[in-house]
Amino acid sequence: MTTNLPKVIVVGDPRLGTMLATCGAQWLIQPVAPTVTAMWDSIDSGQLDPDVAAIIFTDGTGTTPDELELSLLSFSSYCHTFLFADPARAKTIIDRARQLAPNVPNSDPNAPIWALPVLDANKAIQTIQQITTPGIQWGTPAPTPTPTPTPPAPPAPQPVVYTNPVPPAPTTSQPFAQQPNQTYTPQTSPKNYDQAQAYGDHIVEQAQHSIPKLPNAIPGQMTIACMSSKGGSGKALWVETPIPTPDGFRNMGDLTEGDYVYDETGTPTIITHAFDIMHDRQCYEVAFTDGSTLIADEDHLWSVMDMTKDEAYRSWLVMPTKQIVGMETVTRMGDPRWVVPSVDNEKTGTDSYPARGITRIRPVNSVPVRCIAVAADSHLYLAGETYIPTHNSTTALCLAGTIARASAAANNPKKVVLVDLDTRDGQVGSLIGLFMPTALNIRVLPIRDAASVKANLVHDKKMGIDALLAPVRPRNADDVGPEFYRDVIGILQTTHDIVILDCSVNYLDPLLGVGFAMSDEILFVTTLATTSVQGMARSLTELFADPSDGGLGIPREKVGIVANQVINNVGMGRDKLLKAALGAPLIGQIPSDQDAVLIATNSTKMHELLRHPRLGPAYFKLAEACLPGVPMAPLTAESAAVKQTGQPEQPGKRRLFGR
User: Fold this and answer.
1) What is the 3-state secondary structure (H, E, C) of 613-641?
2) Other C-beta atoms within 10 Å of 573: how many?
3) What pLDDT sits at residue 649?
């Protein structure tokens, strides 16, 4: 009779329950609860018996703050308590649980909570067996790894012991040849010590060492990280625009890096870049339903919602002023077509504002304008006396799609996966119109292997690629940290020929260290606008500088520059761009067609850019530069003609850097 067997509660994936029920232990696995909340509901209803010999939780199953931590405490004082989690996450969760001990009656902050590895099922079972014996009898020995030669029997595990692995020696691969006649002078960059304390040390530790691929990685496998400059091409407001700050209103022209403004929730956010004032820009006055106005240049980006669409299909779009100017501003009912986000200013102590519509956009005489970049997850900051939210990656996606389709066209198909590493502001899902599953679906699994990772990728048939999406909500970014992505990227290198990492623009993002260390090549994408190139130069200084000077120590030979949105005779010249690149070579030039990109972005038709008459060939050349020697066939008639004939462009044809 099984009713006399010790009972066990499992919280997580049902497959974990199946694995535990068939591992040889003489116990009764009760019905698996998918979340901690579901577990407590089942206990309250009598479906689960809390009088157990062991309980096994999985990271990510808590649905409210501290729910998982409090539950660990509740059980650890009287039964064997286990947690499936990455080592770093397990330490964070268990440390937090011990801090909460005063809030849990009869809890013991010193009671052991055992961390189980998510990547080694045999080791996890072995640990459970050693901890629960003799309280739970095992009919057959728990499975154990069988390496050669056979190691001695492992010692009894200790609760939650963490050590930092010794990093492997750096590799000497040099994907990109260094640009000739370029010199690099190491610079000691100013340090933001608050941010360095939180992120910098971890990024440096990860980034300066190459992480080797797993032994079963696909031969010839390539991993490419793609990072963009924070600087834009003029997303600017009039310098006299009042900007609300924690110290009161300040003019846009007076703000500097390190100052604080408010994001759309009323939370202070730091200015990460304050760019030079620009003149002679086409400017517009934008009026809103509450009577307020802002003056912005034609390329300023707005976060807007199109109210002419059915409610089920409405979403926030990012559009420049000049595109909104060319469209209707009212619906058939006479209401504003374009609405900006609502503002909750409870934290600022000022009035709150509902979503407001744009009532009029009219050209005005050019005025000095300026743009800033902020650290907020949304990249939004409040502007004007009535707090209007205003906004601050297509290259990685189009590169991935080009490699997949061009290699298939050459009868040499490569399996390509795009990983959205910008976990706080991921754009890949929106660009391809797919939103689930995400990385969170993998993180909550008790066992992380190739099958479970592949099952939680999305597939874009039109681009011909797989994608690992970032969490939908920025608040979940910390749930999928560096250790998680190190594991998952390592697995993807065994299942896909090409892994492309779409990285955050914030070089203090802790995921950059893992992304750079696991990449064979790093692409840095910049426009030719002075602000963008300046941002690139600052970031490259941090990347190339020695760690003793606060840099990341990335070899210049690993980095290639991609010029994006290139317009003939507009913006910084080639020589100045290469000088700002600090010795990294220019390997790609993507011409500008903002209208085509915005239409493709907002309509989730990114695949059409691969056959665009100018963009398509540019992405193809970039793919060839990244994967020399890999057979690929052009996707457009124009690029096919150039490739087959090998002839230079005809006289009079626009050249990307023509002078």
Assistant:
1) CCHHHHHHHHHHHHCCCCCCCCCCHHHHH
2) 12
3) 38
pLDDT of residue 531 exceeding 70, the answer is no
| Total number of residues shown for the chain | 659
* Assigned token pair, 556: 């210049």
Q: How far apart are the first and last CA of the chain?
A: 87
Report d(CA 127, CA 112) in Å as an integer: 13
> Quick one: three-class SS letters along 535-567?
HHHHHHHHHHCCHHHCCCCCCHHHEEEEEEEEE
CA gap 186, 164 in Å, rounded: 29
Q: How far apart are CA 604 and CA 462, in angstroms?
A: 10
CATH class of 217-231+394-624: alpha beta
- Consecutive H or E run containing 172: none
The structure tokens 């961390």 sit at 115
Residue 428 has phi, psi (to 5 degrees) of -60, -45
What does the domain layout of the chain look like in residue ranges?
2-132, 217-231+394-624, 237-391
Closest by CA to 342, choosing from 295, 290, 300, is 290
The per-residue pLDDT for range 564-580, each reduced to its tens digit, is: 877 655 555 677 777 87
146: left (phi over 0), alpha (psi -120 to 50) or beta: beta
Task: Give dist(CA 623, CA 462) in Å, integer.
Answer: 18
pLDDT digits (tens, 9 = 90+) for 438-478: 898 888 887 788 988 999 999 999 999 999 998 877 667 77
Match 């010249």 to its residue by tokens: 573
* Helical (H) or strand (E) element with 493: helix 482-495
Q: Which amino acid is at 378?
A: S
Judge if 2-132 and 237-391 fold alike in CATH terms: no
The CATH number of 2-132 is 3.40.50.2300
Name 54's bridge partners. 8, 80
Give the Cβ contact number of residue 87 at 10 Å.
17
Q: For residue 254, what are its two tokens?
A: 């007076």
Phi, psi of 115 (to 5 degrees): -90, 135
CATH class of the domain defined by 237-391: mainly beta
The residue among 90, 216, 62 whose CA lies nearest residue 481 is 90
pTM above 0.70, yes or no: no
Residue 483 CB burial class (10 angstroms; 0-12, 13-18, ≥19): middle
Q: Determine the 3-state secondary structure of 317 from DSSP.
A: strand
Q: Name every residue whose Cβ is closer than 8 Å to that of residue 194 and which is 6 or more positions away in sequence.
A: none
Tokens of 643: 């490739």
Among 196, 347, 161, CA closest to 264? 347
pLDDT for res 186:
29
Range with lowest mean pLDDT among 29-33, 207-211, 587-591: 207-211
Is residue 556 within 8 A of residue 541, CB to CB? The reply is: no
Let me know: does 255 contact 425? Beta carbons within 8 Å: no
For residue 353, the 8-state DSSP code is: B
At residue 176, what is the residue type?
F
